[in-house]
Amino acid sequence: MPLKICVAQLNYCVGDMPGNAQKIIEAARAAYQDGVRLVLTPELAICGYAAEDLFLRPSFIQACDDAVNQVARELAGLKGLTVVVGTPTHGDNGKGLRTRSVEVQQRHNAARVLREGRVIESYAKRELPNYQVFDERRYFTPGQGTCVFQAGEGDEAISIGLLICEDAWFEEPARLAREAGAELLVVINASPFHVGKGGEREQMMQNRCLATGLPLVYAHLVGGQDEIVFEGRSFALQADGLLAGRAESFREKLFAIRAERVKDAVTLMADTAPERSHEADLWDALVLGVRDYLGKNGFPGAILGLSGGIDSALVLAIAVDALGADKVRAVMMPSPYTADISWKDAREMAERVKVRYDEISIVPEFEAFKASLAGEFKGLKEDTTEENIQARIRGVFLMALSNKFGSIVLTTGNKSEMATGYCTLYGDMAGGFAVIKDVLKTSVFRLARWRNANDPYGTGSNPIPERIITRPPSAELRPDQTDQDSLPPYEVLDAILSRYMENDESAEGIIAAGFDRAVVERVARLIRINEYKRRQAPVGIRVTHRSFGKDWRYPITSRFRQ
Length: 562
Hints:
Low-confidence stretches: none
Mean pLDDT: 93
Radius of gyration: 26 Å
Number of helices: 17
Number of strands: 22
Distance between the termini: 62 Å
Structural class: alpha/beta
Shape: elongated
Helix content: 25-40%
């Protein structure tokens, strides 16, 4: 009889151990009724990923233990069901060494294998990642053992080799599991999304199948956690690396897989969700990031400044898809330099997406600021000072509305602006969540066109007026201003940013690749001198392999120039 496996690809919340345990219990009961006898939860499912310095609190680890015990207790009556639960655990001595200057963790990123009310096996992750957004060596010590257990009934039971995430990116853990008798590898994961990551994972796991000659099930979670997003997309591979099935991306799913022994080999069968475009993945990641940040933190809705430009238009469309029009409010705050077409385009977009829309002029406040500072500024020309005053007035208005009504302010700056400092501290940077903080300007245009051609959440097609997309970008803080007055063309700027910031190429290397020296040196300088701004920016959704967040840790004060 085939072994039916279920991946509980669910949206777990950091720190909600009772809630996460209940999700696992309900999923296991539902799967059991469908004949499932092995349930896999993702890495650290019991506490959510990543819990960061909560892992250092003994009470947190104890709460995780209590939740695992709850799962075991509640599922004890389901005869023959095996459940793998990702959880942090104490090390051998349960304590560790901690002084004011030393922290040696005796905790593991682990999994408990539960059956009929008991823990039948435990496994501690061997390979601990410490790059990009990962800090696992800060919290855990590596495991040393191998875990192989039986799932299924009688002679048809299958030997399962358990790995956790990074373990499967190296040869040894999988090889040891095979040598210990594993017929099928299962890998539980919490692997943050970036564009293209899904294909990278499948390719790496194909390599693992080919190296071991074993089929593999990859169990992944879904959901947003602060700046990172997990897209699900759990999958199963045959022993020869061919795809046996794939779960949907960015959706909760009880992903069912049938494992059957045929001629002394295990083969897998499952439904297969189709491949998707990068734009579809990126859109869903941004929508899920917004929905979970607001939902898990209890914000009743969102508010943003709608300027008539493409960045705020894109953020508005994302927010409506994430939250629904009734939970989103847009405010147009015209200045003396706001063009008529900006008013018209902002109004039109608000009408298309059916959100509450208000117009609050900042002209009286701007004139009042200039009058108050007239003595100090006497004889000096207007410059970025006056531009920034306008941005800061708008920030004050938005934050006042946020304070009064409880909605979080969504900022609308993109990655190109964050990189070069084309943003105003306490102005357009003022807010609680930076939706497109990791989206380059060229990708902003591409996403806007993609969303106009697609309606993935049924909130309405073609939400962004065409003129917003085709009009030259402008902050509209002085007469006839365009972004290209201060920045290189975005196609050039973003290509340099991708090389310099995302891939650590040197300025000289980029110049050697054919880029103009003066432009490269200017962009590199802008990145360096605006680190102090980025340190004060709100958290935003990570969608590339390197964002201005956890995986960008540069000193503010530095004289290094390459």
